[in-house]
Design a protein that fits this description.
Elements (H helix, E strand, L loop, with lengths): L2 E2 L6 E2 L39 H15 L16 H14 L19 H12 L3 H10 L1
Antiparallel strand pairs: 1-2
Helix pairs in contact: 1-2
Length: about 140
Amino acid sequence: MQIPCPSCGRDNRPSAVYCDGCGTPLPTGVLAPATSAQQAPADAPGLFVGRGRELAALDTLVTQALAGSGGAAALAGDPGIGKTQTALMLAQRAGARGMQVFWGRCIEEPGAPSYWPWLEVLQGWLDTHDDVALCRILAQA
């Protein structure tokens, strides 16, 4: 069974801990009905102050991606400075522009799997394609 996101309503894979679309923590143990997309999750940006320069640079990358030119950015810094909030805001903005957003989080525990966030992103992407589409995409690579 898929787990609906309480924030954006997206159906997520059963093993997901965070929404592949917006990064909201998903309910664990029981499947909860999706709530209004207007409701902000506990760690979603409500009043978002600062980071205007960073968001402008990230918005430029989103615009370039929509035009077909890839890019990458890294949000780095000390704990608590707003990296996750900035990423959530960017995910919301990209989703509002029609982009499909996938989310991966780092696990800060000893023995955490290598490349875990990338595995989550790839699993989220794979879950949005059926076997026929995947074969067609891989044949083009």
